[in-house]
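dumping this here so i dont lose it
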């Protein structure tokens, strides 16, 4: 593959990407958003509970408290039950299990990671998802299937917000306090509070002046819009509606709002990449025919392709794997797996230049040997995105609108979207795209939204503006964690994350952290959570066998792990620096703290490392007493 064989000019595209990025970078970075507290607290109220639960406060001792009833908390509990550890309580702020899927019930909500990969424990539950890509109602139903199978409702404290967890050294227990005045003394606490759990609002001038109706997509107000997760939003028939934001959430709800509203204005700052979705029903026989172990093999196969691993067959074969096969395909014979993974991150010429100047990425072979291949990957990405941009031209009738909907950045700079109804929505006469060309809206007034001197009068503003990433851990979790000698987790991580395997941190004995930080992150997020759950169950089992009551990361092991994260984070630094801003790259500011990253070697390598660590059975790096 070389530049000459394309019908586009790679140099011109490179410049265009740079311009589009540069005009979006803001000095205020993450501070452009505001917390949903105070006058905005109503944005996070639970609209889905029928009646508020009434119960007495609880005071008790329990072996394990699991904070969070999303997939992470449910998997932790399921794997603990499998290991014979049953003395646990799950605390969840929502009215039921589901986490992300409990909150995100907006019309059209669905998952575009294949359901046969995304749904965990499929072989244990025997559940057959209806379609290749599931939707939010079915996912919530599946959460109930898991909850029933593992008796997770037993002892669960729903509609309960943890307010703090405090380590009591004399008792060797965490004191877990809640907004219902519960006091639980737990030996172990699992923090599975969700990386994208806290909705955020842009700090737009005049945002509190608006007199109409407003809500965030993660708290969809069906009482106002009518309809349900499948659409039919009859309450909007006589309403002028604004949707602010065009990320993965907006892409899914905009077609339904557009189909129902009197008029819909979509305020866009940066367009998403919208590829083909191609959903289809599940062949009922197919799952029955699968050999034991198929599920693990399938999700491993999927994630391997995503990091350039060599697989015999692409089992999932969809937009995700096609994109990665295109990126890595022509390299399969030329570069070993580790090099391909490095190249994935190193596909900018700037990186190669940096390498020449002495930058030493983690690789077994010299990067310069693969310089041409890095360039080829960049070209493959351009080619892929040219296809995505061409789709906007093919589908959207108005030329100017089609042009505005074209993303000019590398495909994995932002969350790629796969949708077949989003682009056609802009052909409806009652739908207008307001392209703010990277600027965002100027002001909100009592009656509407101002951009570029024009006021768009609306009855309702729907914020599809995403979730907090990169803010203080306790702020996102909604509670503080006070460890040994009262040190808080906010203090401990003020200068950057510091963990052992992403799960333990010194000074916080018997606390287990779930999530992508300093850990192996998968596009199939439930896969990472499942691996973390298996890991947790292993540690508690071995600690139990050894009679240990206190588990804490050793200083040396933690330092070494942080160093590993920093080394590997270098791989993605240049790629991220060239990307258009968003939560993937700290709003374009790059990561000043390279330890605030996921494990840069990719999830498959990380899972392998953890498996090897477990196989030794000595919990090396953890101090037991
Ligand atoms: P995102 O953070 O991805 O998107 C927020 C949107 O709001 C962006 O388009 C952003 O623009 C825009 N925005 C922010 N401030 C302003 C402003 N002042 N004016 C105009 N626009 C503004 O949040 P989402 O909820 O869409 O998605 C979050 C994540 O959830 C996804 O990345 C994905 O991981 C997951 N998800 C997955 C789905 C799936 O499986 N299909 C579906 C939905 C969510 P800009 O890009 O310029 O910052």
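and the seq i came up w/
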């Amino acid at each position: 593959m070389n530049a000459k064989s394309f019908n586009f000019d790679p140099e011109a595209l490179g410049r265009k990407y740079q311009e589009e990025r540069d005009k979006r970078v803001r000095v205020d970075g993450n501070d452009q958003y505001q917390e949903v507290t105070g006058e905005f607290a109503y944005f996070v109220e639970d609209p889905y509970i029928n009646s508020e639960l009434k119960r007495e406060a609880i005071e008790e001792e329990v072996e394990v408290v699991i904070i969070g009833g999303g997939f992470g908390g449910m998997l932790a509990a399921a794997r603990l039950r499998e290991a014979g550890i049953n003395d646990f309580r799950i605390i969840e702020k929502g009215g039921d299990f589901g986490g992300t899927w409990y909150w995100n019930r907006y019309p059209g909500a669905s998952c575009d990671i294949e359901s046969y990969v995304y749904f965990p424990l499929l072989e244990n539950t025997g559940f057959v998802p209806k379609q290749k890509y599931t939707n939010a109602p079915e996912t919530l139903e599946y959460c109930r299937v898991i909850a029933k199978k593992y008796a997770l409702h037993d002892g669960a404290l729903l509609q309960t917000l943890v307010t703090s967890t405090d380590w009591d050294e004399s008792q060797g227990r965490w004191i877990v306090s809640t907004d219902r005045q519960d006091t639980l003394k737990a030996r172990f606490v699992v923090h599975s509070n969700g990386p994208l759990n806290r909705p955020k609002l842009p700090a737009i001038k005049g945002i509190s002046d608006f007199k109409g109706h407003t809500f965030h997509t993660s708290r969809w107000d069906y009482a106002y819009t009518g309809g349900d997760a499948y659409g039919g939003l009859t309450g909007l028939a006589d309403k002028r509606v604004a949707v602010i934001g065009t990320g993965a959430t907006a892409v899914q709800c905009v077609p339904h709002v557009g189909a129902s509203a009197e008029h819909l204005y979509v305020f866009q700052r940066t367009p998403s990449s919208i590829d083909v979705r191609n959903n289809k029903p599940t062949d009922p026989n197919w799952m029955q025919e699968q050999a034991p172990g198929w599920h693990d093999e399938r999700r491993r196969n999927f994630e391997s392709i995503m990091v350039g691993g060599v697989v015999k067959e692409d089992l999932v074969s969809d937009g995700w794997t096609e994109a990665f096969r295109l990126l890595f395909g022509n390299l399969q014979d030329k570069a070993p797996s580790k090099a391909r993974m490095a190249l994935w991150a190193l596909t900018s010429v700037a990186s190669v230049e940096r390498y020449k100047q002495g930058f030493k990425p983690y690789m077994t072979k010299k990067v310069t040997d693969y310089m041409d291949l890095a360039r080829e990957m960049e070209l493959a990405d351009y080619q892929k995105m040219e296809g995505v941009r061409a789709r906007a031209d093919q589908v959207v009738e108005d030329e100017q609108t089609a042009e505005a909907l074209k993303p000019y950045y590398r495909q994995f700079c932002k969350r790629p979207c796969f949708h077949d109804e989003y682009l056609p929505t802009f052909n409806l006469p009652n739908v207008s795209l307001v392209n703010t060309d990277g600027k965002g809206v100027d002001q909100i007034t009592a009656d509407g939204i101002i951009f570029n001197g024009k006021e768009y009068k609306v009855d309702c503003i729907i914020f599809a503006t995403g979730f907090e990433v990169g803010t203080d851990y306790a702020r996102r979790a909604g509670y503080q964690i006070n460890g040994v000698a009262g040190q808080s987790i906010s203090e401990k991580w003020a200068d950057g994350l510091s963990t052992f395997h992403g799960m333990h941190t010194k000074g916080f004995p018997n606390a287990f952290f779930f999530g992508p930080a300093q850990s192996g992150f998968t596009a199939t997020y439930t896969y990472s959570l499942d691996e973390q759950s298996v890991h947790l169950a292993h540690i508690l089992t071995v600690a139990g066998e050894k009679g240990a009551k206190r588990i804490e990361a050793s200083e040396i092991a933690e330092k070494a792990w942080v160093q590993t994260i920093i080394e590997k984070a270098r791989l993605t630094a240049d790629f991220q620096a060239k990307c258009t801003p968003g939560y993937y790259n700290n709003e374009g500011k790059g990561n000043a703290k390279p330890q605030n990253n996921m494990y840069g070697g990719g999830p498959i390598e990380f899972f392998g490392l953890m498996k090897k660590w477990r196989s030794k059975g000595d919990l090396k790096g953890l101090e037991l007493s």
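The pocket of NDP is lined by residues 111-112, 196, 202, 204, 244-250, 252, 267, 269-270, 415, 440-441, 464-467, 582-583 (CB under 6 Å).
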